[in-house]
Design goal:
The complex is a heterodimer of chains A (112) and B (110).
Chain A: E1 4-7, E2 10-13, E3 19-25, E4 31-37, E5 43-50, E6 54-56, E7 64-67, E8 75-78, E9 87-94, E10 102-103, E11 107-111
Parallel strand pairs in A: 2-11
Antiparallel strand pairs in A: 1-3, 3-8, 4-5, 4-9, 5-6, 7-8, 9-10, 9-11
Chain B: E1 4-7, E2 10-14, E3 19-25, E4 32-38, E5 44-51, E6 56-59, E7 62-67, E8 72-77, E9 86-93, E10 98-100, E11 104-109
Parallel strand pairs in B: 2-11
Antiparallel strand pairs in B: 1-3, 3-8, 4-5, 4-9, 6-7, 7-8, 9-10, 9-11
The chains are: A mainly beta (112), B mainly beta (110).
């Protein structure tokens, strides 16, 4: 009965590859987010997305692109992976009008 | 630009102690503030959410306060237990943007 799930949990890949991380929520939420947590544990928002609006943090390279096949999913696609992309990526969701975000367990990405 | 700072970065206390974690933010124009808990290798769990119009929220042994004008929030944990050991993060929301602090790593020693 996981609320927000992410796959894979771990991802180890070579520099230059293209990879995707999937996120699904079964809470009926209409807004989803992607965060990057760096080695210093600092969480930075990358994207927020609902059916009508994608808000992109301007510091996010355009190699990162969110894709939402439906309201319950927001996947993160990364092109031409770089060493600095190594981090933990968290997906989160909430319902508009409510403030509490629910987080997934994270995907640990290591770029070699 | 909003900056969120948490002090201390790490804290170690014996079981049973009451403790306070601090969070400060530079822009008082916030929508709300949340405290999260992160266990090693796991995601974040929301503990308490304080709306900008509120002064505090309580849940069990946890009490969070908010002083928006001074840009500060505290998380008070009463009668700490080893199970409280985790990293505690505060985050402020300005609407669609969320700004997280770097966290306080708490260890409660049995």
């Amino acid at each position: 009965d996981t609320a927000v799930s992410q796959t894979p949990k771990y991802l180890v890949t070579q520099m230059g590859n293209d990879k995707s991380i999937k996120c699904e929520q079964n809470l009926g939420h209409d807004t989803m987010y992607w965060y990057k947590q760096d080695s210093k544990k600092f969480l930075k928002i990358m994207f927020s997305y609902n059916n009508k609006e994608l808000i992109i943090n301007e510091t996010v390279p355009n190699r990162f692109s969110p894709k939402s096949p439906d309201k319950a999913h927001l996947n993160l696609h990364i092109n031409s992976l770089e060493l600095g992309d190594s981090a933990v990526y968290f997906c989160a969701s909430r319902l508009r009008g409510q403030e509490t975000q629910y987080f997934g367990p994270g995907t640990r990405l290591l770029v070699l | 630009k909003q900056e969120v700072t948490q002090i201390p970065a790490a804290l170690s206390v014996p079981e049973g102690e009451n403790l306070v974690l601090n969070c400060s933010f530079t822009d008082s124009a916030i929508y709300n503030l949340q405290w999260f808990r992160q266990d090693p290798g796991k995601g974040l769990t929301s503990l308490l959410l304080i709306q900008s119009s509120q002064r505090e929220q309580t849940s069990g042994r946890l009490n969070a306060s908010l002083d928006k004008s001074s840009g500060r929030s505290t998380l008070y944990i009463a009668a700490s237990q080893p199970g409280d050991s985790a990293t505690y993060l505060c985050a402020v929301s300005t609407g669609n943007q969320f700004y997280f602090g770097t966290g306080t790593s708490l260890t409660v020693i049995p």
